[in-house]
Amino acid sequence: METAVDVLCVAAGFTIVIMVLISAIRTVVVPRAESVMLMRIVFGVTLVLFNLGVRRASTFEQRDRFMARYAPVSLMILPLVWALFVMYGFSLIFWAFDVEPYRAALVHSGSSITTLGFASTSDLPTALISILEAFIGLTLIALLISFLPTMYGLFNQRESTVSKLYTRAADSEGGYTPTSLISRSHTVDALDQLSELWSEWEDWFVRLEEAHTSFPALNFFRSPRADRSWTTAAGLALDSAAIYISTVEAPRNPRESLMLRSGYVALRAIADHFGIEHDANPKPDDAISVSQDEYNEVYDALAKAGVPLREDRELAWRDFAGWRVNYDTVLLELCQLTMAPQATWSSDRTGMRMPSARIVSWRSRRSRR
């Protein structure tokens, strides 16, 4: 290694390798929201390819089945991209150390990172660089082995709570609504036990914020059933608590208020991570996507089911809207981002568009709580 070109190749090679290692560590190891460019690019390019297939689907079930593979495929591609960049970086280094032609340097790099050893050298510096690349290759494999179980463990924790909520909120038409959740609880004399549900969902939202900002790929892991989603489940839980605290005539418990706050704080944090604009300090009388007529239908349905309600319907509506305004925008945007299934008061007003291009440009932003 004598020329300035060789020195530049070594510098460029090590720079590429170091950048990939930093990207892998920030993606897998660092326990906080990090904006990793390489991950954004991989997920963005994969999304473009998946959108081509989604456009050909004629039903939501077909689109959901197709998009269910999006996050897992992107995650499997990511370590391959890491390995390819490391292999390319070390090929420049090998080439600078007189492994010629460049094709031979590339083959030698591939042999080293896979630890197959079919390309060898008697030159000590080159041998040491080969050993270093092999260690890095093993490190990437170890990161992948630890990463996937972590992701699926967090996914299972999220979905078990979601499934329980949907079971309680299912109606006779195959949908899931706050009306069904509250009226069913009243029918079995369990309105006072809803505080346990609010407590469970407060914990769920706390875990959601930590997991879905530290591992943003989790946002795109779809529920096992096509008619369910973590985003619509979040909306269902928040709307149920908002209706309960504003409309139902029952002893007040701080748990529903605490759950509502933990919910909109979590959704805002995830929205911030993806660069979704929203008002961090909305006013109670700001407009929301739910109309008063829609609320009145819920009020009437609860009254018909015998649920004790506050007599002042107008005041109850204003109280509900005052809670809903805190999460209305971010809920709809996250439903759009994740291509959520049709659900009352959430994805039913997003237009069911294709998954948002925000995946390509997500970025961490200072929390605006």
Low-confidence stretches: 359-369
Q: How many domain units?
A: 2
Rg from C-alpha positions?
26 Å
* SSE class: mainly alpha
The average pLDDT score comes to 88
Largest sheet: none
Strand segment count: 0
H and E order: HHHHHHHHHHHHHH
Helix content: 55-70%
Quickly count the helices: 14
Q: Specify the overall morphology.
A: elongated
Strand content: under 5%
Distance between the termini: 55 Å
Element layout with pairings:
Layout: H1 4-28, H2 37-54, H3 60-67, H4 70-96, H5 102-113, H6 124-169, H7 178-187, H8 194-214, H9 230-247, H10 254-273, H11 292-304, H12 313-324, H13 328-337, H14 358-361
Summarize the entry for a quick read.
The chain is mainly α and 369 residues long. 66% of the residues lie in helices and 0% in strands. The chain folds into two domains: 141 residues, no CATH class; 192 residues, no CATH class.
Provide structural commentary.
This protein has 369 residues and is an all-alpha fold. It folds into 2 domains: 141 residues, no CATH class; 192 residues, no CATH class. It contains 14 helices and no strands. The termini are far apart.
Give descriptors for this structure.
mainly alpha, 0% strand, 369 residues, 2 domains
